[in-house]
Amino acid sequence: MKTLLLLTVAAMPLLAADPQGFAAYTSSDLQSRAKAAKIDEHKVGLDRVANWGNHSLLLVHREGDGEVEVHDTQVDVVTVISGAGTLIVGGTTVEPRTTAPGEIRGKSITGGASHPMAPGDVFHIPAKVPHQMLVPKSLVIQVVKVDTK
Fold it and tell me: What is this structure's pTM?
């Protein structure tokens, strides 16, 4: 009986619950969520997976070119899940317009640098940097947004 009690106590740490705030998402879960995201008039479907205060996780499914985006107080860390495209960063936003506090959208970028996007690639886009994704067919990305304020 004493041996059984010792084995039970020794195994308890293996049965511990995940710490508060921990989250895990399988690749298949993310793919399913991205496919289920409804594509809007801007050729993008968005799933706000989680928000942890100063950072959040988004899934984005693009079926065409995106608008230029500039976030005054948010960093984007982008991981390509599937598909292909080109990321344009830097330069100047053509026809900028404010769409929300600290958020600017535009038609295109002049003078930006082009980066091919393929599955597994990761891009860190600092706050205040114009960026645009050119997508010939389809692109699924996950974006960790980090508030810098």
Answer: 0.84
